[in-house]
Amino acid sequence: MGKRINPLSRRPRQQRLVLAVRGAAGTGKSFFASTLADAGLGRLCYFDVERKARLLTGSDGTRFDALEIQHPDELPEFIDWALDGEGREQGYGCYALDSWAMYFGRKHRETVMAVRERSGDPTAQPTAEELSSDQVIFQEVLRRLCVDSGACVVITDQIGAKGKEDREENEMGRVLPMTSGGLEYFVDVLVEASVRIEDLKPVRVFRVVKSNSSAFPIGMELFNPSFADFLAHLNNSGTNTLPVSTPLPTQEPELLEEAPALAFVGRTGPTLEDLLAKAEENGFSQADLVTAARYYCNGKSDLQRLSPEEIADLDRRLTSRIEKAARAAAVTDSSLETTEPAAGRSRKLRA
Q1: Is 185 a residue whose pLDDT tops 90?
Q2: Do the Cβ atoms of 87 and 81 come closer than 8 Å?
Q3: In terms of Cα–Cα distance, which of 288, 246, 316, 257 is closest to 42?
Q4: Are residues 306 and 171 in the same domain?
Q5: Structurally, how many domains does the chain consist of?
Q6: What pLDDT was estimated at residue 337?
Q7: Domain hosting residue 281, numbered range
Q8: Whole-model pTM?
Q9: Residue 327 buriedness (CB in 10 A; 0-12 / 13-18 / 19+)
Q10: Rounded mean pLDDT of the chain?
Q11: For residues 143 and 139, what is the distance between their CA atoms, to the nearest angstrom?
Q12: Average of per-residue pLDDT across 181-200
């Protein structure tokens, strides 16, 4: 007997937080992403699209693994390596992508250049359908990291959080506002990073602008936070009942034995084969049944499409027709038996 997945085994057993950080250059997004390495979640795998992680302490492998993405097409391959390939031997427990805007911007540039080369128009732009198709492909990166990894994730982004009209500039020029919708869909909490000067000292301020967790209401601000601070706030909010570091032991088996096939208890009515056999035994053709089905079963001419209720209804009508014909035949026979002697007496009288 085969095995099948037990849905109850997929109940959440461990808490995780998928966080996106947006803001202008110099607001501490990359530094914040690197603090995943100190949150007690396991080794950090840092996908460095901007190739700036070299400026972070311990990016050479002593504190975390920063993987420089030289071409945007390498990013999906590197993610597959970390999640399903040889990278699993490194024991990665959390992931960071720096940055989503740079990856999307470089891939979008390739699409624009391809359109212009194909059309011969140096000012041509991709159509809405082409942009939509690209977005589906690009967002597969977010799905792999945010969903398939099953781990805590930080994604940095250079698009302003105030709306399409206020998106930030970056090294690749203005990045399409369509990137914001995809990122917001996949993350649990989205924060906007900025820098304030208080008492002549810079303070990094992370303000929540989108949240799926009641522990992080919109408008909430954290000052000079690390990722561990976000986890601590989640645990102390009273809304979290799941551990972050070690999953709860499973209470249900992951696989179940295939259930045996249900035994046939008994028929509750005649089958189509029974109906056809009864009709043939009593001198009715299949064409007669088709005609009756058209009349009594909402115009159905295909007997195979009849429901059990409709078959039972035709069976009752056929039985009634057979019984009626039998009664008529009996009356005819009785009449013949009573008239024949009278005819014989008349012949004798005439003789």
Answers
A1: no
A2: yes
A3: 246
A4: no
A5: 2
A6: 63
A7: 272-341
A8: 0.68
A9: exposed
A10: 84
A11: 6
A12: 87
